[in-house]
Design a protein that fits this description.
By secondary structure, this protein is α/β, with parallel strands linked by helices. The chain is built from 14 helices and 8 strands. Helix content is 49%, strand content 11%. A 4-stranded parallel beta sheet has the order 2-1-3-4, with helices on both faces. Strands 6-5-7-8 form a 4-stranded parallel beta sheet. Helix 6 crosses helix 11 and helix 7 packs antiparallel against helix 8. Bound molecules: iron/sulfur cluster.
């Protein structure tokens, strides 16, 4: 046990109990951060709590948001707006959105129009990663966003607080990297459902308070004695923004997969290595994002094609196969699938395509498909 069961309900609860608790204790303000990558250090440096907003999950009904968007759009955009209409975002003093796709861009404007009292601050992420100006440009954009958040906090943002905030998030990112490495090495010691729950919890807590929980989980996982099951090792991609139901993740595992790498919640663990300290903290953050962040379907970086990054992940995690688990109507994900598929076929890596929506209740069909996929691989292995 990694002590994760107690958090299972917390991560699905759209009353945001950990956030309410933090607010009551500290009296601080709260900033909601839409995925994928939000510079959480900025609100934190201002004494505010950045909180991941990942839509309504399968716990809310859409009564108002459907009429504000076209039909063929991912669930997270609609259900995040619905959270606003049903008062679940009243707890938040501001929202951060950024340039990942057209639906997310539109959501920022629709939010601002419908809830003028809650600033929706928009972060422009760099699109040309090879321009010599990209790092100074992104650093100045982060500075601009910091100033906009300063108006919400009621005080200006200081470099010294930014450096401290980078350090605080670096601690949890380092611990998450550790847990992820542990799972790749021995997935029987920490399941992906457990790891996911812990990583999601990080998006709902002060990093100073989530770090001890992660340390405890590392210790428990290292001590766990579990014999490896007869499963295939799988890299999962496609769930970088909208998140699949936890039950779906569990179904994949119980259908015979050890997920040894994934792109869940990647925006909260985007740095491949520690962000360099010293110097201008905005520039350090900008440089780390431009030069050393994980591959993201919403980040266009021709120096490291995402299909190549996927193949590297399969090799380094010693995976047998890839499952693409994409949110329905997510264009960045579906565009990438075409590239992934070609690369996987060229490298002879078996793969399976699955789609999900927030409002999924039945997992039998998915489970059946995955079981067939796993059995065919185990059978091929046995007869090879
Ligand atoms: S799920 Fe895909 S389409 Fe929807 S907001 Fe996220 S990146 Fe954009």
């Amino acid at each position: 046990m990694t002590g994760w069961e107690q958090y299972r309900d917390v991560i699905e609860d759209r009353e945001f109990p950990t956030v309410r608790d933090w607010r009551e204790r500290t009296g601080g303000k709260v900033i909601g951060c839409f995925p994928v990558y939000a510079p959480v250090e900025l609100p934190y440096a201002l004494g505010m709590l950045p909180v991941g907003i990942f839509g309504g999950g399968n716990r809310i009904e859409l009564a108002h948001a459907d009429s504000r968007f076209q039909s063929f759009i991912c669930s997270i955009v609609k259900s995040t707006l619905e959270l606003g209409f049903i008062g679940k975002l009243d707890l938040f003093d501001g929202l951060l959105f950024h340039s990942i796709c057209d639906p997310a861009r539109n959501l920022a404007s629709v939010m601002q129009r419908n809830f003028a009292e809650r600033p929706a601050i928009y972060v422009h992420l760099p699109q040309n990663m090879t321009s010599p100006s990209v790092v100074p440009w992104f650093a100045s954009e982060l500075r601009r966003v910091g100033e906009a958040l300063g108006a919400v906090a009621g005080r200006p943002i200081r470099d010294v607080d930014m450096a401290r905030a980078i350090g605080a998030y670096e601690v949890v990112r380092g611990l998450l990297r550790h847990l992820y490495a542990l799972r790749t090495e021995a997935p029987e010691r920490i399941s992906t459902a457990e790891l996911y729950t812990l990583a999601r919890l990080v998006t709902l807590m002060d990093p100073a308070e989530s770090a001890p929980i992660l340390r405890d989980a590392i210790e428990r996982s290292q001590q766990r004695q579990e014999r490896p099951k007869d499963r295939i090792r799988v890299v999962l991609v496609g769930s970088f923004c909208e998140q699949p139901p936890l039950e779906l993740i569990e179904s994949l595992e119980s259908a015979g997969c050890y997920l040894v790498d994934d792109d869940f919640l990647q925006g909260w663990r985007w740095a491949r290595r520690a962000v360099a300290g010293g110097g201008d903290p905005y520039e350090a953050l900008a440089r780390a994002y431009v030069e050393d962040s994980v591959h993201l379907s919403t980040k266009h970086d021709l120096r490291r094609p995402r299909a190549q990054a996927l193949i590297e992940s399969v090799k380094s995690s010693r995976a047998d196969a890839v499952i693409f688990l994409g949110a329905k109507f997510c264009e960045p994900g579906l565009f990438d699938y075409a590239l992934y598929r070609r690369a996987l076929e060229e490298h002879g890596i078996p793969h399976l395509f699955l789609e999900f929506e927030e409002k999924m209740w039945l997992y039998d069909r998915v489970r059946g498909e995955v079981e067939t996929f796993v059995e065919s691989m185990l059978f091929t292995e046995a007869t090879a």
